[in-house]
Amino acid sequence: MSQLVDSEETTPLLRDDASSDDFQDDDYKSRWRSIRVMYFTMFLSSVGFTIVITSLWPYLQKIDDSANASFLGWVVAAYSLGQMVASPIFGLWSNYRPRREPLVCSIFINLSANIYYAYAYLPKTNNKFHILMSRAFVGFGAGNVAVVRSYVAGATSLKERTSAMANMSACQALGFILGPALQACLSFIGEYGFTVKFIDLQLNMYTAPALLAAAFGLINILLVLLVLREHRVDDHGRHIRSINYTSEDRVDISEETEETMDQVAVLTSNVLFFIVMFIFAVFETIATPLSMDMFAWTRKEAVLYNGIIICGIGFESILVFLVVKVASQRIGDRPVLLAGLAIIFCGFFILLPWGNHYPKIQWADLKNNSLVSQISEATKASNNSLEPTGCPYEQTWCQYTPAIHLAQYISSDILIGVGYPACNVMSYTLYSKILGPRPQGVYMGWLTASGSGARTLGPVFVSQVYTILGPRWAFSLICSMVLGAIILLSCAYHRLIAFSVRYGRTVE
To answer: Which regions span the lipid bilayer (predicted)?
Structure first.
């Protein structure tokens, strides 16, 4: 064992002594080419989600007058619901068949769903339901995230894994940043654009992003078919034959064992990942309405300023991923996860309202408070193209809850932008290590499904609690949830260790 550890520390990139021959060197290069294809697949998955998100609401309104804000919520949730259903299916598939199959199938579904989205204006009726179905299928195709994570987990050693997972998360964050940027670049086409008659396609600022996502999907399929190869290594970086590896030119050095994974650690990791994703879903959902209520921003100002903030958080996340790779090597994965949760707690605790300054109330400047005057003034404001700003009087908590200051909001954004990416990458890095040498497709599918479920429930939770009870209750409950996650992690701390460490095959 000591010789093996010495070899790991003195050999570049965890190659063993046999890696000096040409076959192992080619195998090593092929392995990392394949991992980079997985990076690109993860990048495109996040681009596919965000590239239409800013134009989704106006597109809905344009093609179907009956669509309302409530239906928009279902359309946004449809992506996560589709991903939640698909993740275990694709994960199970990847356990027993070459991963090219579920990857190509899922990307093709995603590609077709984006084309479906671009043609959603064609039917004469129920166009909004076609939008809903197309987004659900885009999410279903994005269920390949489970396959991507299981591949990277199986193709990296313990020491490589945190770095590889951080790189993959950075690609995902970059996709979330570039998606809205690509949409903005395509907005020059305009709302009406032009028609390609022979395929009956209206190419405009709403359909072009979806078609660009479909083109990216085609490139992704080609990369998977031409570049991706099946690779699997043990915890020390030595190649072993995977259950879905079809060639016979590789010697299987793995040992059959009846050792089982720690199911408590697996369940704990799923719960922690659910909480992390739930919290971030709440954060991204509440940003726009909170800023409009507290700072009296107009819709245009809220979209612009929060867009800048989200881009800033995205770039901040990429820096955090780079720091996490170094920090986890020096102090371990669990302390980084614990620190990330503590930073998130501070971020939401700062958002709790305090002081004696109250938000501006819409219509508060009316001298006559009668309902008739309110309606008359509202009509007048509408006719003059003046948008009412401030906290809506229908939200009764606006009258007695102190305002959140802009400095609080910005500070919270910065802290959450540090804590969330650290928790995100550490959650499934630890999870992949806990699972051990067995194929991880199904378990990664359940982890992805738990995250998708959190992204579905988070917006529903915050929209109800925030609207009815206000930010004090909403953020207090979130702080309690984060505190619960910290306690859970502390209680299960000694069990959240790598499979090989648990059975004494290697040391942390």
So the answer is: 37-59, 71-91, 103-120, 132-152, 173-194, 206-228, 264-283, 303-324, 336-355, 473-493
